[in-house]
Amino acid sequence: MTATVKPRSEGDSETFIDRLQEDLSEDLGATEALLHTRAASPVAVIPNLSGYIVSAGGKRLRPLVTLAAARAVGETSHGTHALAAAVEFIHTATLLHDDVVDESDLRRGKKAAKNLWGNSASILVGDFLFARAFTLMVETGNLEILDILSQAASIIAEGEVRQLAAAGRRDLPTEEYLAIIEAKTAALFEASARAGALSAGGAEHAEALAAYGRNLGLAFQIVDDALDYGGTTSVIGKSVGDDFREGKVTLPVIIARRRGDAEDIAFWDRVLDVDQQRESDLAHAIHLIRSTGAADATAAEARAYAELAKAALNTLPQNTWTRALRQLADFCLNRVN
Amino acid sequence: MTATVKPRSEGDSETFIDRLQEDLSEDLGATEALLHTRAASPVAVIPNLSGYIVSAGGKRLRPLVTLAAARAVGETSHGTHALAAAVEFIHTATLLHDDVVDESDLRRGKKAAKNLWGNSASILVGDFLFARAFTLMVETGNLEILDILSQAASIIAEGEVRQLAAAGRRDLPTEEYLAIIEAKTAALFEASARAGALSAGGAEHAEALAAYGRNLGLAFQIVDDALDYGGTTSVIGKSVGDDFREGKVTLPVIIARRRGDAEDIAFWDRVLDVDQQRESDLAHAIHLIRSTGAADATAAEARAYAELAKAALNTLPQNTWTRALRQLADFCLNRVN
To answer: Which residues of B touch A (CB under 8 A)?
Structure first.
């Protein structure tokens, strides 16, 4: 009789996350317990809906950043676990609201919560998780961390509104795109890393870890935006073409439009008005993004930020955890969902 | 030449609020300044939308409770003003999300923000204001207050979900109705009063002021629910019949149904399924609520909570501000919008 062993291969990036989760299993276990107990409520919809999305196969990237950042510079504590759970709750609340805002029907390869419980429940349970995130943060008793995370939360919302206002804007400058993803995505990775460092008494490394988190978040989001034009829905969790159908102007589109000829530009200018989109437009958009080299250029941009993330760790003690944080940056580049 | 003087009459309850706002003008001015500066953002939609709703003629009841509670037991400070602004931001964020959830077209007698900026902007600007509320709270540097307000925020969201789950529930017990309004409305009044007391160094009076706030909030919400079946849309800000059209089971309905004969019960059981409502149903509902005495019984219930609120102040120093808080309870009973 052979025990069933989960196959592992060194080069497999999914395996890296599995291993990191295993290495941090004690910390992650404490964090998971908080994600479970703090989403509890006598109002059944709340644990049902939040349980559905919290356990929907997320990789816990932000908690992993908090935990590994803390380990890299010191010891983890209940405060670290509370923060790791808090950043995941903030992220989850954002996902719930995003799904309503974007009218997305899939999330992490499953039906979006709003399609099962309705928009109203998704909005209100998001608010609940957001509030519970703050209660968890208050438990750390650290006002500096509270300030960082509450500011990150308003920057995220600001980024989301900015993205909404930019939808369909044909001439969106690259800098505006980067400002949007820095706010809506990188700010939480940055706060996750910084808060982890501070919770472990590593104030002198907080800036470096914040820079790591910010650049990691930028790389992560750029890859995410590239994935929207690659792969197939049957393989990846994110529905290909979601951003396209919402008229979101992301880096692959900005580059492809910039490099296109007059006909290509006319194409982009039509399809970025979502009401003008036709059935075959997504396939042509993907074609243009590949043929103009915009897909490669987008990947190169993500790689550059991942390198900046890794370089930010150079001033830190070099140990298992700084190594893991570097590998996490590579993982974000190579992920397929 | 006669200066234009705003007419005043002692018995006019609107006048009482004007006077209270005047008596607290310095504190309220500092609070208003925070409501303005802390809603600032380079993303124009944010100050535009929040400015629209924040300045849409709200009475600032929750900030007034915080400020008067602080004055009743001590001195106000920047911390008090920050808390007063924070509770108004939390309230405003809730209104923005409520309008999306309830599909209300009117708010404070004006078009709901979502009808001008869309649901998505209302959700995200609500999130922004909620985050800014926490940043304001962190400025007080008082972890006890942070804990109280973050817990209040999750209780509010829990109450909203509970209300959503109860929509159309024909046999909603009075106790469940009270639990819902205690969570969705009274918890913030309670936290507003308690935080005000704590910010002014009046910890020994915090429990009494919390009880005041809770009972005031219950009275306020019961009156609100009664107003949904009285007055005319041309006079009052809240659209009459909003709750009815959403199938919300509120106290006037619970009492009218309980007191009704078989035909009345059949009527309620049909109309609480919003898909079964007909044009003339609202008028009949109002008729039943009046003829069964449910309107009077609802008013009596509100009066009882207002009395409990006033009685909770008996252990406090008796001064201008405890008197103002008592008058505020009467104001909540007598308001027409």
So the answer is: 41, 43-46, 93-94, 97, 100-101, 119-121, 123-125, 127-128, 130-132, 134-135, 137-138, 141, 143, 146-147, 150-151, 153-154, 156-158, 160-162, 164-165
Is the predicted pLDDT of residue B13 greater than 70, yes or no? no
Mean pLDDT of chain B: 90
Q: Please tell me the number of Cα atoms within 13 Å of A95 on its side-chain side.
A: 22
Tokens of A96: 């719930």
Decide which of B57 and B86 is more confident.
Answer: B86
Given an 8 Å threshold on Cβ–Cβ distance, is B156 in contact with A131? yes
Which residue do the tokens 């795109």 mark?
A177
Of A134, A164, A165, the CB nearest to B134: A134
Position A72 confidence tier, pLDDT thresholds 50, 70, 90: very high
- Across all residues in chain A, what is the average pLDDT? 90
User: Do the Cβ atoms of A123 and B141 come within 8 Å?
Assistant: no
Check if the beta carbon of residue B34 is closer than 8 Å to that of residue B85: yes
Judging contacts by C-beta atoms under 8 Å, the chain B residues touching residue A127 are: 93-94, 97, 130, 153, 156-157, 160
Domain boundaries, chain A: 13-143, 168-317
CATH number, domain A13-143: 1.10.600.10
Q: What is the DSSP string of A45-76?
A: HHHHHHHHHHTSS---HHHHHHHHHHHHHS--
- Match domain A168-317 to its CATH number in 3.40.50.300, 1.10.600.10, 1.10.510.10, 1.25.40.10: 1.10.600.10
CATH, range B14-334: 1.10.600.10
Question: Cβ of B45 and A165 within 8 Å?
Answer: yes
Decide if pLDDT at A148 tops 70.
yes
User: Tell me, what's the pLDDT at A107?
Assistant: 64
Query: A242-261: b or e for each residue (b if 16 or more CB lie within 10 Å)?
Result: bbbbbbbbbbbbbbbbebbe
